Amino acid sequence: MHQTCGIDEAGRGPIAGPVTAAAVIFRRGLEPAGLCDSKQLSPERRAQVETQIRATCLFGIGWAWPYEIDRLNIHHATLLAMQRAYHALMRRPEARLIKDRSLTLVDGRFCPRLPTTAQAIIGGDRKVPQIQAASILAKTARDRFMTAYAGLDPRYGFERHKGYPTAAHLEAVRRAGRCELHRRSFKGVRAVTSRDP
User: Fold this and answer.
1) Does some domain include residue 39?
2) Strand order of the sheet with strand 102-107?
């Protein structure tokens, strides 16, 4: 009997920070309550559901960093983060036992190259519980990283906008220049040419 692995990402749209992916398999008979697309949940509710997912599921988190996004482009960097999430999941002993009996469903139009059967599902974060769980884990992991980085470099307010191109963020980039988290190939960052790190 197949077990379903769901993969989703967070962070394609920001001009700063990594793109983050998660891969999730439910343990037999256990499905976290309150699953839906992470964008439909408040930060507080996402944190509550994340706790349930981490307690009841097998999961892996993968990252692609700004320099990789600039080198590969955001599409290929997203697939790389998904690959890394899948392999992080499969390093867990329980997951390795079911690797050959798992079907991997990926949110979106494209699948990363994986050593298993995989299928892209458009709107998967609205339809597939495992993808919904992955969506929540990817979003909370990325938000946590951006908030922690804001403590190291408070110039940009990453804890508020998580790297998305808000007016306040773009103004901070114009004022302070870009930092190592900024995606140099993205519009809004390319225009800043002075005071580069």
Assistant:
1) yes
2) 57-64, 19-26, 3-10, 102-107, 117-121
Q: Give the residue numbers spanning the domain of 99.
A: 3-151
Domain with 102 in it: what CATH number? 3.30.420.10
Is 87 exposed, middle or buried, given 0-12, 13-18 or 19+ CB atoms closer than 10 A?
A: middle
Query: What is the identity of the amino acid at 181?
Result: L
Q: Is residue 62 part of a domain?
A: yes
Is residue 182 a part of any domain in this protein?
no
Q: Kindly report whether the global pTM for this prediction surpasses the value 0.85.
A: yes
CB neighbours of residue 192 within 10 Å: 17
- 71-119: pLDDT as tens digits: 999 999 999 999 999 999 999 888 776 766 678 999 999 999 999 889 9
- How many domains does one find in the chain? 1
- Tell me if 72 is assigned to some domain: yes
Model confidence pLDDT, tens digit, residues 28-72: 878 888 888 788 888 899 999 999 999 999 999 999 999 999 999
